[in-house]
Amino acid sequence: MNLMLKRVLHPNVRFVQVLLLAFCSQVFLSSVVYAAKVNDVRVWRAPDHTRVVLDLSSPASHKIMQLSNPERIVIDINNASLKAELKDLDLQDSPISRIRSAVKDKKDLRVVLDVNSKVKPRSFLLKANKQLGDRLVVDLYDKKKTKQVVKHIDDTNKRDIIIAIDAGHGGEDPGASGPNRLREKNVVLAIAKELNYLLKKEKGYKPVMLRTGDYYVGLKTRRGLARKAQADLMVSIHADAFPDSRANGTSVYALSRRGATSAMAQVLADDANNSDLVGGVSLSDKDDVLAGVLADLSMGASLDISTQLGKGVINEMGKISRLHSRKVELANFSVLRSTDVPSILVETGFISNPGEAKKLKTKSYQRKMSRAIYNGIVKHFSHSPPPDTYLAWQKRQRDKTIRYVVARGDTLSGIAKRYQVSVNSIRRENDLASSVIKVGQRIVIPSS
C-alpha cells in the first residue's frame, strides 16, 4: 500500500518541485537583475569641475567610459535600475547638456552624460555613513588651465597680505543643521563672503575664497588651495552643533600637536574631519599621516602665529557674542594641518542652539560676525605684518615718523633741509595750505 501510494504521488511531487524551483529561480533572478536602485541624482557645479552624485539603495559595481563624436560620458552600473527623475536636473553652467539612461543587457543600468566641452572624468563609490547612504560620485574636471593666484604688488613694490577664506562644508555636505532646516554650509558661506568684501576694501590685503558656491571641497584640497595662493593666513569658518541644544557661544581653534584641549574640541574636530565622508572624497585623496606633517620645522612658527592671531579674533567676537571659550582651543582639525600657512578655525556659534541659530540666519548678525573676524585679523597684522608686505613697509614709515614742535625762528624750508625732506612732502603729510607755520605748531616730518 505504501509503495503504491509513493508511485501514485511521485509525479505530483516532481511537479511541485519543478514549480518551486521555477518560483525560486524567478525570485532570485528578479533580485539579481535589480539588486541596486538609483533613488536620486544630484548635480553640483564647482569652479574647476562638475560633480554628479547618484544615490544607491545598496553598493554596486560600475565602470565609466569616455566616448567621442559626440562627446559623452557613459556610466554602466551592474544589476541596477533607475528610480530617479533626470529631466528636472539643473545643468546650468555645467558642461553637461543632457543626462539620459537606458537598460543594458536586461539587468544593468546605463547612464549617459552628453557633454558640450572637453572634460576629464573620474568616479568612485562612497559607502553608507550615518548621514547618507551608498553613493556613486562622478567628477568631470574642466580641461582648462586653472587661474594662478598672483600676489598683488603695491606701487611701493610691496605685496598684499593674502587671506584664504574657507567656508566650511558645502554641496553634499550640509554641515550641522538648525531649526527650520537652517544649514551650516549656507550660514558660513554668507559670513565668508562678507569677510571677503571687507578685506577687499582694506588696502594691503588680498582675500581668496576657497569655496565660492554650494559645492564640496575636500579638506586636503582646501589646504592645498591656501598654499597655492601663498596665503599668510587661512581662516576656516564653521558653526557648532551639539546634542544638547543648550550649548552656546563662539570659539576659535588652532591645530594641536598632541590631543585636544577639551572634550568639546575633540567632538567638534571629529565631526569636522568626517566632512570628507559626507562631502565625497575618494580613497586616493586621503590625508597624509599627521605625524609626517608635524615633522616639518616650519609648523612650530605657523602654530605660534595661529594662536596669537586667534586670541585677537576671540577678543573681537567677545564684543558681539558670548564666548564658549576665552582662549584658543587646540584640536586635530584636518583642514588646519598645514606646515607653512598659519590657520585658525572659527566657530561662529551653535547652530543647534535655537537662540543662536535665530541670530546666525540673519544678515545683520552675519555682518557683525564677519566684522569681528575682520577686526581681529587686521589688528594682528597691523602690529605684526609679514616683512615683505605693504603693511610692513607702512609700519616702518610710521615708526620712523618724527613729530616736531615749531620753535621761534623756524621756517618750513629750514625744517625740510634739516631733516633732508622736501617742503612739499611736509605740506602733504600735514595737509598744509601754504608754507606758513606758527610757533608751537605740531607737525609730522615724513621719512626721507
Explain what you see:
- The chain contains 12 helices and 19 strands.
- The longest helix has 32 residues, at 2-33.
- The chain has helices at residues 2-33, 184-201, 219-228, 263-273, 275-279, 290-294, 298-317, 354-360, 363-383, 390-400, 412-418, 423-430; strands at 36-45, 49-56, 62-67, 72-77, 80-82, 96-104, 108-115, 119-126, 135-142, 161-167, 177-178, 182-183, 205-209, 233-240, 251-255, 329-331, 343-350, 402-405, 442-445.
- The chain is of the alpha/beta class and 448 residues long.
- 35% of the residues lie in helices and 25% in strands.
- It has 3 domains: 36-142, Immunoglobulin-like (Sandwich), CATH 2.60.40; 161-390, Aminopeptidase; 401-445, LysM domain (Membrane-bound Lytic Murein Transglycosylase D, Chain A, Roll).
- It starts with a helix and ends with a strand.
- The strands form 5 sheets. A 6-stranded mixed sheet has the order 13-10-14-17-15-16, sandwiched between helices. A 5-stranded mixed sheet has the order 5-1-2-9-8, with no helix packed on it.
- It is elongated, with a radius of gyration of 31 Å.
